[in-house]
Design a protein that fits this description.
Length: 473
């Protein structure tokens, strides 16, 4: 993809800066209202929130148009920003010692995966760069533990998703409409306009929309199901408005349901699954414990097999969405990368050891367009098994949550199914620093029962909880 200068619309209803100022004012108002919904959440939650906003959007160096001489080395500006966030997270966890270890104890497959990623650096062709990339995975774990160390982890997770939605969606619209140099690009070959918003490319923007839409639908559904009043008077109206805006952005400049076919199909898969579970629950029938793990296993097997058989299994979905039989070039990409997988099928090239500016230039692609293939390239079938076990373990825990907290379990399942299907045609599963996989990580850790989970604060905000101020960080 390339950026082409975009012309400012001839009939602009608002000057660009005024539109940005109004959007900023509205977002600040929404964030203040959101605060009323979660009074027991501390200011420290802004650390993982800012991190999520960062990985969902363009790097800081792109916003400031800083030219990097070595793309593989990363931007010093971005590195300094991430190191600062990591130090804040470490300081927060140090103050909350004893309140976060359970988040790791109940996610042993996650720990095993992180350790194997670290060990695989030994056989990477670029161990230095691979280690830097692993540090970013470690940062993701720290951010998830900050959420878990809150007094009410699940409410904190809800607050994080709400804040991200309130910020990412409105600002994406402003960038697309009033700052097209940042929010719009044109296809390298087709020349078609593509909406980026805050994201780096079209598919990333679509994924942000899907994650936001899932949260908003869940929030409205939960309030309707439980009959609970909104935290503020016009909350349902605002959520419906932002949901409509989210679908508008998901439709892209063509306003098509299949503007981003992979994101649309993954969202529909998650929606159908959750609708089926809800209907059965309403009729007094509970889904069997093995249903979700079996469904997840089938999705993973299908995703891996599609790579090895040239995508023949998903051509029907591609053609029904108006795409060509090559899945917009994906089959050619998979065919060119399979020999690399076969060279090191068991342990791969080492975590973060394959994709460099050299390999991207050699294959003339920016990624594998398959999360399962990217995992195989990096950490082989051993890594794929560990990733699968993490997903299957999350499915088992999410199913148990249906009998404890039905709404929370349903949200978790929605994100799990959506992410698994999305990685058949796009890549995000190979790293916790992609927004969809980061959400799965946060859901898994924040749902752990290593410490009592409360849905209401034990004491008014401002008083001390667990020996620490409620408003720390």
């Amino acid at each position: 993809m390339i950026y082409w200068p975009a012309e400012t619309p001839k009939e602009d209803p608002l000057p660009s800066l005024l539109a940005l100022a109004l959007c900023t004012a509205v977002v600040i108002m929404l964030l203040r209202l959101e605060r009323k919904q979660t009074p027991d959440v501390t200011r420290a939650l802004w650390i993982p929130t800012v991190w999520i906003l960062y990985i969902a959007s363009k790097p800081i160096s792109v916003w400031f148009q800083v030219v990097r001489t070595d793309p593989d080395a990363g931007s010093p500006m971005d590195q300094a920003f991430l190191i600062t966030l990591m130090l804040f997270a470490l300081a927060t966890l140090a103050r909350r010692a004893g309140r976060w270890a359970g988040g790791l104890r109940e996610n042993l497959w996650l720990v095993a995966l992180l350790v194997f990623m670290l060990v695989s650096i030994v056989w990477s062709d670029i161990p230095g760069a691979s280690f830097k990339r692993w540090i970013r995975e470690f940062q993701a774990i720290l951010m998830a533990l900050v959420v878990f160390s809150e007094t009410t982890p699940r409410r904190a997770m809800e607050s994080l998703l709400c804040r991200a939605t309130y910020i990412l969606i409105p600002f994406s619209l402003v960038l697309i409409k009033y700052f097209p140099i940042y929010g719009v690009e044109y296809g390298r070959w087709s020349g078609d306009q593509e909406w980026l918003g805050i994201a780096q490319q079209k598919n990333s923007m679509a994924l942000v929309c899907v994650i936001s839409a899932i949260f908003l639908i869940w929030s409205l559904f939960r309030r309707w199901r439980e009959g609970s009043p909104p935290a503020w008077k016009y909350q349902p109206h605002v959520e419906v408005l932002i949901l409509l805006l989210t679908f508008y952005l998901l439709g892209g400049p063509q306003h098509s349901v299949f503007y981003s076919a992979t994101s649309t199909y993954s969202f529909l898969a998650g929606l159908v699954c959750c609708a089926w579970i809800t209907i059965r629950e309403k009729s007094g029938k509970k889904s069997r414990a093995g249903f979700l793990p079996i469904a997840m296993t089938l999705i993973i097997v299908f995703g891996v097999a599609s790579v090895f058989v040239g995508g023949s299994g998903i051509r029907f979905f591609a053609t029904s969405a108006g795409r060509d039989a090559t899945l917009t070039g994906r089959t050619a990409v998979w065919t060119s990368l399979l020999p690399v997988v076969i060279e090191n099928p068991v342990v791969g090239k080492g975590f973060g050891g394959f994709w460099t500016s050299k390999t991207r230039s050699l294959f003339d692609i920016s990624g594998a367009h398959s999360g399962y293939l990217d995992v195989l390239l990096g950490i082989g079938f051993v890594g794929l098994i560990l990733v699968s076990l993490f997903l299957l373990s999350s499915c088992r825990k999410a199913h148990k949550e249906l009998s404890r907290d039905f709404s929370w379990g349903l949200l978790w399942i929605f994100y799990l199914i959506t992410a698994a299907v999305h990685n058949i045609g796009e890549s995000s599963l190979d790293s916790f620093t992609t927004v969809s996989t980061a959400v799965l990580l946060f859901m898994a850790v924040s749902s752990a029962r290593g410490r009592p989970v409360r849905t209401e604060p034990e004491m008014p905000p401002g008083e001390e909880q667990d020996g620490a101020p409620a408003q720390d960080g």
